[in-house]
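To make the argument concrete, we let one protein speak, a sequence paired with a row of structure tokens, as a model reads it:
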Amino acid sequence: MKRKMISVMLCMMLLVTMSFTGCGKSDSKVVNVYTFVGYMQEPVISNFEKETGIKINLTEFSTNEEMLAKLQSGGLGQYDVMMCGDYMIQTMLKLGGLIEELDKSKIPNAVNSDPKYLKQYWDPDNTYSLPFMSGYYGICINRDKYPDAVIDSVSDLWDPMYANDMMILDDERADISLALLKLGYDVNEADQGKLDEAAAEMESLKSNIKFFDSSDPKAKLVSEECGIAYTWNSEILRAQNEGVNWELALPSEGVVLWTDNFCIPEKAPHADNAYTFINWVLDGKNHASFDDYLCYGVPNIAATDLLPENIKSSACAYLPDDVLSKSVYVKDVGDMLTSYDEIWTKFKQ
């Protein structure tokens, strides 16, 4: 009798296990996307889900550093695909165990990637990444408030006329780059003496800063809560598209560039769905559709002719060659990051 009862119990347990396994299979039609705030919006999300049958579970972050901290504190195994900045890929590769090599045979649309954004310093053979969006940190002036102001150098941001009227990004490397450019130094400076000078410049800029915003800077541009801004170039173009009189200023020192990229993190629970997602986005039509709301430069040769005209013809999206030629990327600075962190911590106090 006991043997029969045990057999019955084992069968019941097997049925329960099979039931849960079935649930797991239905859950496999998902892709967990970890991305910067605002990158994934409608109708892109619903279009992907309709065309592939895969549901997007979206988690957002504001900075590369926030993303890295999450991965290092137990985030691996939670995400299938993520968008991350250029220098952060370099950092993650140095740390090891955070991102996987890409199987390009599963991404046939990788051929659409613009060669200008391939084989860059952060991933010379694009072993781990493919470009998603590109842009730069831009300066803009509210012409209704400052009709005659001229900003043709980064140093003009320190002008006392802008006291308590400037918005800047809540971004350590982007902001410290302003001081380094003002001083004529490399934005990836490793000399402590020069970094000390940059720290002093950052302190002297404080009186002009009204607020930091890396979550929704466009909203503050549209509401005209400041007269000067240092933000992502797309935020400027999007505000212009809403009729606000913001004018782009391109300083003589050039600008700081960035490229955000697709990566697949280690222990991705649905890696095949991650490849489906990346390949879907890299289709020219789909990649171009992101710019219906993002207004960035799309590093995809199959998407270029499909972009809205106001983006293709705007310096806010695509820099003139003379500016591009003297512009630079932020890079991983190794152990010197501690010095940058110290400057940033003091600056934000």
User: Anything to note?
Assistant: Confidence is low (pLDDT under 50) at residues 1-26. The chain has two domains: 29-134+258-312, 135-257+317-348.
